[in-house]
């Protein structure tokens, strides 16, 4: 069983047995047929992943990690907010006629800000500080720009990364305000684990710990039978992540720079409905 499996099992069991339902409250998300999408939730879950020990991917069901990496590069490298730059269709429901998801995610990372060293966007500022100011306690990004929230088609969920260098080790905290456990918990963990590996590699550091802080960790009503079946599957050991070590420029990583050796997730045929 991978460590990611263990944490996922623990989190879901905790939500299902001690969580709180929002059935009596008005909720925003809807199922495709227009029914309100209610959830059961736990507030304030913190999961810690040691990236040197193993790659934190679920084996209880396949995480479509190639699509997850594609979305990660869309946000952090292409800094795009247009679904035409994305290979999957996961954002289609939130895009307008031009393909834009509004001033969200990649858009926020592309905005340049003034610094004494010159104008830089949030990603380039992180790259600069990891190289020139590794002792800094100010190396962080935030997508939660209140000024632009009215122009975002969905408010950022995984909204902030805090990077911290200890010796030669790069640690990070991912702050997430809202987590759809079945659809995207491991999807987000895989993405941000790979992001820490990427920043570490191009900054001459080794990846350390990813701390995932989740405010509202929820399971949607229609996902419960699927999660219950998943919890009974036979897990497998974690695979090994292999990254093309010749890449030294953050913007030179491609989806083909990453490989997983020995990924043998449990068979999973169910289609997961997404609350919109
Ligand atoms: N309700 C909800 N949950 C989410 O996780 C979510 C949203 N909305 N809205 C914005 C993004 C879009 N995300 C998504 C949406 C769909 C999949 C999805 O369909 N995953 C499939 C496989 C996708 C593939 O084949 O590449 C899965 O089985 O995990 C994943 C992430 C995460 N986010
Ligand atoms: O990266 C992501 C993006 C979205 N989600 C989930 C979390 C919620 O279920 C919905 C967003 O709805 P809100 O009402 O805005 O919280 O999308 C995710 O888990 N990970």
Automatic annotation (TrEMBL):
A cellular component annotation (GO) from this entry: cytosol
Superkingdom in the source lineage: Bacteria
Binding site for (6R)-5,10-methylene-5,6,7,8-tetrahydrofolate: 180, 275
EC number: 2.1.1.45
Catalytic activity: dUMP + (6R)-5,10-methylene-5,6,7,8-tetrahydrofolate = 7,8-dihydrofolate + dTMP
Subcellular location per the Swiss-Prot or TrEMBL entry: Cytoplasm
Active-site residues, record numbering mapped to chain: 157, 157 (nucleophile)
Enzyme class label: transferase
Coiled-coil features, chain-numbered ranges: none
List of residues binding dUMP: 137-138, 177-180, 188, 218-220
Keyword annotations: Cytoplasm, Methyltransferase, Nucleotide biosynthesis, Transferase
Example GO biological process: dTMP biosynthetic process
Signal peptide: none
Gene Ontology molecular-function annotations: thymidylate synthase activity
Pathway it works in: Pyrimidine metabolism; dTTP biosynthesis
Chain ranges of the Thymidylate synthase/dCMP hydroxymethylase domain: 8-267
Main location: cytoplasm
Pfam families on file: Thymidylat_synt (PF00303)
Physiological role: Catalyzes the reductive methylation of 2'-deoxyuridine-5'-monophosphate (dUMP) to 2'-deoxythymidine-5'-monophosphate (dTMP) while utilizing 5,10-methylenetetrahydrofolate (mTHF) as the methyl donor and reductant in the reaction, yielding dihydrofolate (DHF) as a by-product. This enzymatic reaction provides an intracellular de novo source of dTMP, an essential precursor for DNA biosynthesis.
NCBIfam families the UniProt entry points to: thym_sym
HAMAP family hit by this protein: Thymidy_synth_bact
Entry similarity comment: Belongs to the thymidylate synthase family. Bacterial-type ThyA subfamily.
Subunit composition and interactions: Homodimer.
Protein name: Thymidylate synthase
Species name: Pusillibacter faecalis
Organism lineage string: Bacteria, Bacillati, Bacillota, Clostridia, Eubacteriales
Gene name per UniProt: thyA1
